[in-house]
Specification:
mainly alpha
């Protein structure tokens, strides 16, 4: 699912979870630490592995070992953003952008 860059993550969370295959855990960053997102995850019978924001009154515990695996995804996006066309989103059409992302991922995987 592709959205404009100025859209908040929370607005698309419900649609994203609905489109996803069944999952046991959802690993996400602090940007997804809202009660609504946690309720959506629990409704699917999954566990939220999301660190609490600093502004949350009572910190919610999470599995730090599992959260560390998120580093792989962050590094992958960092590599893909080395491609200027992806980082600045030159492609206006979603299909073209997805094609560019797939090509960049394939070339990055092949080089490494």
């Amino acid at each position: 699912m592709l959205t404009p860059g100025n859209i908040n993550d929370m607005l698309m969370a419900e649609a994203l979870f609905a489109a996803a295959r069944p999952f046991r855990r959802l690993v996400a960053d602090r940007g997804y630490d809202t009660n609504r997102v946690r309720e959506l995850i629990a409704a699917r019978g999954a566990v939220a592995v999301i660190p609490s924001t600093a502004t949350r009154r009572s910190q919610i515990p999470y599995d730090k070992a599992i959260y560390r695996s998120r580093n792989l995804i962050e590094r992958m996006w960092g590599r893909l953003k080395d491609w200027r066309r992806l980082a600045t989103r030159y492609d206006k059409l979603a299909d073209n952008f997805l094609s560019t992302a797939a090509l960049a991922a394939a070339v990055t995987y092949w080089i490494n």
